[in-house]
Amino acid sequence: ACSVNVAGSIAMGVMTEPPSTENASKEVAEQFAEEKEKVLKMLEMKAKMAMEVLRECKNVECKAIMGGLYAYPRVFLPDSVVKRARECGQEPCEYFCKAMLEETGVVTVPGCGFGQRAGTYHFRMSLLIWDLQEFAKVLEVMKNFINKYFETHK
Question: What is the pTM of this model?
Answer without folding.
Answer: 0.82
